[in-house]
Amino acid sequence: MKCVACNGRTVVSSTYQNADGITKRRRECAECNYRFTTREKPEKAGVELAQGWRNRDRIEQSERIRKRDRSED
Predict the structure, then answer these.
(1) First and final C-alpha spacing in the chain
(2) b/e per residue 10-27 (b: at least 16 CB within 10 A)
(3) What is the pTM of this model?
(4) Going by C-beta distance under 8 Å and a sequence separation of 6 or more, which residues neighbour residue 37?
(5) N or C end of the chain, less CB within 10 A?
(6) What is the DSSP letter of 9?
(7) What is the pLDDT of residues 4-36, one digit of tens each?
(8) Left if phi > 0, otherwise alpha if psi is -120 to 50, otherwise beta: which for 52?
């Protein structure tokens, strides 16, 4: 990752994860010694369904299962 102050190369000095699953990384620029924290939050994965060759909709997996079960009835 690049430094937010000078666009230089950064080094991760520490990493920790809280109870919510958010990963925090403490970074330091190797060039200007600026320190900052980044946060990474995991995203819930969706499923992509192709409905026609150009139309793609992202829907949640539970929605896809619900539609499948409805069509089997």
Answers:
(1) 51
(2) beeeeeeeeeeeeeebeb
(3) 0.54
(4) 24, 25, 26, 27
(5) C
(6) B
(7) 999 999 999 999 998 888 899 999 999 999 999
(8) left
**pLDDT at 1 (0 to 100):** 87
Instruction: Judge whether 29 and 6 are in contact, CB under 8 Å.
Output: yes
At residue 59, the pLDDT reads: 55
Q: How is residue 7 written in tokens?
A: 């666009």
Helices (DSSP H) in the chain: which residue ranges?
Answer: 61-72
More reliable by pLDDT, 23 or 46? 23
Please count the CA atoms within 13 angstroms of the CA of 28 that sit on its side-chain side. 5
Count of residues in the chain: 73
Find tokens 């991760």 and name the residue. Answer: 12
- The token duo for 50 is 């192709």
